[in-house]
Amino acid sequence: MKIVKLETFTNQYVGFVRATAEDGSQGWGQVSTYHADITCEVFHRQVAPYALGTNALDFADTIQRIYEKEHKFPGSYLRRAQTGLDTALWDLRGKVEGKPVASLIGGSPGKVRAYASSMKRDITPEDEAARFLKLRDKHGFTAFKWRVGAECGRDQDEWPGRTEAVVPVVSKALGDGVDKLVDGNSCYSPKRAIEVGKLLEDNGIGHFEEPCPYWNYDQTAEVRAALNIDVAGGEQDNELSSWQLMIEHKSVDILQPDVMYLGGIHRTLEVCRMGAAAGLPITPHAANLGLVTMCTMHLLRAIPNPGKYLEFSIEGLDYYPWQDGLFLGNPYDIVDGHATVTDAPGWGVEINPEWLMKSAYKVSEIG
Ligand SMILES: [Mg+2]
Q: What positions does the domain Mandelate racemase/muconate lactonizing enzyme C-terminal occupy (predicted)?
């Protein structure tokens, strides 16, 4: 069954893709967030031409073919654009077969334990602790992640002393029996990361994410070797060769692919297989409530080496105004600390027609 039409609906932040097959069946996917308008241009120039006319239900080779045809363009934008094709075709196949994507890739619908993930650094330790406790009481979260250092901060803190304060204040407020994670977002040199890591160990934090500039696999490996807690990373990495290096250098204890940065489910499954072969768990990166979190939920229900939880952004419209009104209903209800993959076909979400009406439209189709 051939793909005959590929449409994009986008603004600057979010771009949805609708794939149509020759029998009229359709599926919805999304390119990765941010500069989505540019990504959709890449989609129509460098992805759609190779996909039109190919098999809508069996497309692993199409994804690889695009990579080969556009081999002069390694890197982020093409992967982000390919994700739109991959995720739309998984949804289409799910709708054709009447199955959720989780089932198509070897898993099943059901619950996924979530951790509450803060994106904020401009928040005081006391305010961060207070909102975590509210979320714990309202949604039953049993795991939380907050931020230390400054993003790509060259050893500087968001403000002097914030990290030394936010680690114990939030950890004590959460108390025992809760999983505690922090994210350095490429802040530290190995020396400083190890100092911060000791502070984390003393305060019961079990997961130290992206301690050093993520492209320095040896630096991250040095930190991992020096600490007893788990070091995690990989959210930015979109070339399989990078994952190979990361694994070979023993940089991390936990792999964190982002389904949408990496190029979709097919490529993410490949990273999950690489992780499984190395005995490493997968705790994907999913930092907003666009489609990425739903794709990640389906993935975690299917792979043999899932990490302990789903990343679940707790930020509202003050931080992510563009998340407003993307879907009909709420596909992201957290009950007792868990999100749920339903048995609805495909991704099990409906894109909001009102949002689509306000977006910029473009189509590629078989003439
Ligand atoms: Mg991170």
A: 126-230
